[in-house]
Write a structure and sequence with these properties.
Elements lengths: L8 E6 L19 H8 L5 E7 L20 E4 L2 E4 L23 E7 L22 H7 L4 E7 L1 H14 L3 E10 L6 H12 L2 E3 L1 H5 L3
Helix pairs in contact: 3-4
Organism: Roseospira navarrensis
Family: Belongs to the isochorismatase family.
Protein name: Nicotinamidase
Amino acid sequence: MTVRMPDDTAFLIVDVQTDFCPGGALAVADGDAVVPLVNRLAPAFGTVILTQDWHPPGHASFASSHPGAAPLSMAQMDYGPQVLWPDHCVQGTPGAAFHPDLETDRARLVIRKGTNPALDSYSAFFENDHVTPTGLAGALSELGIRHVVMAGLATDFCVRWSAVDGRKVGLAVTLVEDACRAIDLDGSLEAARREMHAAGVVRTDTAALLAGS
């Protein structure tokens, strides 16, 4: 029998979208391997929340919006340094859709982020200026959530920022490591692990979580 998580614990599934999986515009290696694990974990939670990158065409974080800029190069924005990505998760396109095998019916909320054409948003809680909220923290407070368990894509970007920001807004945060995959851009995975550890993010795996340990 599947373990049942406490009512004050939510499952946050980060950006399990077609463009982040093999064959997508910004594919994370082995990204689709998280899908069966996420589907296995979700029934243990009373509150399941999905995040979804949802960029307008011509978003400022796209390399194509900066003439001469190469994908995965860096740019300085008003809000700080920004990786310039290949066009991905454009609103209403197949690449922005959730992975077709991801079971989404349990989701209570879908948080769409990156919708401001001038401002990227890795975190589920704040846009990349670290000030503008997505509304997730308020929603979790209203629902009585004090602990968030996270999985999804990618460990070193959207999952990392969401986990650290979850701690900043006062939540306990647990990362299910085997239900995540990373881009690992110039050492970003190890940097993410260090930052999450320093923030007090707890690391576990699917088997341990479902065993209640």
